Amino acid sequence: MSLEQLIEQCKKNDAKAQSQIYKLYASKLFSLCLKYSKNYAEAEDNLQDAFVTIFIKISQYKSKGSLEGWMKRITINTALQRYRSIGVFDIVNEDKIEDVSVEIDEDAVSIDFLLGIIQELPDRYRLVFNLYALDDYSHKEIAEMLDITTGTSKSNLARARMILKEKIEHYKASISSQTL
Predict the structure, then answer these.
(1) d(Cα 79, Cα 88) in Å, to the nearest integer?
(2) Displacement of CA 120 from its chain's centroid (Å)
(3) Over the chain, what is the mean pLDDT?
(4) Distance, first Cα to last Cα, the chain
(5) What backbone torsions phi and psi does residue 144 show, to the nearest 5 degrees?
(6) Are 33 and 75 in contact (CB under 8 A)?
């Protein structure tokens, strides 16, 4: 069955078609959930909630753009909804924001290390960092998605970068002291 046929069957609440869509996209969407969740269990909950929403709203999908892109947006919004409701963001004055850049020597740190330290960031910093640096959302889009100001988005990104920079520098220093 083609993707278009699967979508049409899902619009008719066909459980077999829904199962096939789930099998096709669950792993990709789960990795997305992991980026926006505190832990593995929360990511599983977010994935389940996202698929419930996807199948409820599948009739709204009009085949403009990819199904995967549409599903990713729902998945991100599902994960972010948890944080909107508990208010993890502090409002910040935009004039006090410093831009921090992080230079990463890809030979010095592994992808697993980077993903691990990103996962350790406080919720508000991790969410903004992931949306901006990994998923290419603008500060304006992030502000709208998280119901915060663009200044808060910029501040949280700067703080996330500062924490990551410190952890990378500490890691590099510990590696170089072990080799001496």
Answers:
(1) 13
(2) 14
(3) 85
(4) 60
(5) -70, -40
(6) yes
